Amino acid sequence: MTNSRLNAIREDRLRKLEELRQMGINPYPYKYDKTHTCQEATDSLGKKVKSAGRIMAMRSHGAMTFVDLQDQSGSIQVWFKEDDLADDYQILDLLDRGDFIGVEGEVVKTKTGEISIDVGSFKLLSKSLRPLPEKWHGLKDTEERYRKRYLDLIMNPDTRDLFVQKFKFWNTMRTFLIEKGFLEVHTPVLETTTGGADAAPFVTHHNTLDIDVYLRISMGELWQKRLMVGGFEKTFELGRQFRNEGMSTEHLQDYMQMEFYWAYANYEQGMELVKEMYRRVAKEVLGTQKFKTRGFEIDFSKEWEKIDYVQEVEKQTGVNYFQAGLKDIKAKLKELKVDYEEGPKERLMDLLWKQCRQNIVGPAFVINIPVEVSPLAKRSEEDPRLVERFFPIFAGSEIGNGYSELNDPVDQEERFKRQQEMRDEGDEEAQMHDKEFVEALEYGMPPTCGFGTSLRFFAYLVDRPIRECQLFPLMKPKD
């Protein structure tokens, strides 16, 4: 719609607004005692109801007007008759598509069989000044839908349904963990040292303390492990975390994450718990454990395979992590036409792994990951070059991350030093040396399994780009 056309419509609606006020009608009253949703009204044939919603369409036929009324539950036809409403019927001339109204009347069937509210009285609840997009030709541009999500929610019931599913997703996870005896906790969002992930943080300034602080990049991993030191045995946190990294169909900078920590358990027990939780979540959100996503057919109910990280990379690329040098990995990345920046062996090997994982259907758990790429995981008893870490994986992507937590303070100190060396060499995603966390470990932390999963799991479950799964994704302001 052109700006001139939009301005003309807005001016006409402002005129109607003023006319309503001159008639003594408040176009923006304070409340309405709604007793039935549109869906409840639809199911109340023969009964008196009082419902409210937005006008989505208006059709006049002589002394009758039909309106499609929509609320969160759905829509219902509303039937206005001049004989019943007398002078109030003329107010309909001042209403438009997009206005909110409240209606009271009996639910009937029209001659065409349409269930409708036969209006005995009505009230304007909010006058809209801008026109809604056209039903069939409006709001198609993806960026516009994200920028004006409120219009997307009005015009596309599928979008509203998506966020109802998202609520079920997180609520099912929370309920599952509470049933298993986990305590929900809340740890700091602002940190002086980031930890718990390989990611670049957002930096801000604390005025009162006059120090720079970071927005957390994990769901309180190092804080929850402090809780294990302090005597808690099962904790989880569900909240927002922030990573100052690239945008893609899988990555956001501000998103929901869940992490749990389970004292006296190891990664084998963690895998069993995660498998049970993922199956429960899929069943609650989708109604089934079988679904299609990213071109793959996934079945959570089948046995989950265990895939060896080192063996899988060698099988797909011919590169053995322990035998290959930095030059070998670079050569393979060039052969696969993968862009990379100069970095240590473990960082480039991770890029090679990301190419391999794209071919894994799953569901499966990836295990036996090299210690260099896992600075917070416990070494394997069978092979100290590896750690007891696992990724749930399906449809070619890692959908979570867990491990037997490292509780040896000496080993942890050495690994933090290696991460700090990588930071000093320019790797902004390497982890910071958290001396206070090492001090906490020196008081003793029991064997613990930790696990985290994020909004990416939901995006893959419903087969949508991850930005589609944010109500209001970050957008660059218009000029």
Could you name the ranges where pLDDT drops below 50 across 5 or more consecutive residues?
none
Estimate the global geometry from the Cα principal axes: elongated
- Helical amount among residues, as a percent range? 25-40%
The CATH architecture of the largest domain: 2-Layer Sandwich
Summarize the structure.
By secondary structure, the chain is α+β, with helices and mostly antiparallel strands. The protein has helices at 3-22, 38-42, 82-85, 142-147, 149-155, 157-179, 221-230, 267-286, 309-317, 326-335, 345-357, 409-424, 435-441, 455-462; strands at residues 48-61, 64-71, 74-81, 100-109, 115-126, 183-184, 190-191, 203-206, 211-215, 234-242, 254-263, 290-293, 296-299, 305-308, 364-367, 369-370, 386-387, 389-394, 397-398, 401-404, 448-454.
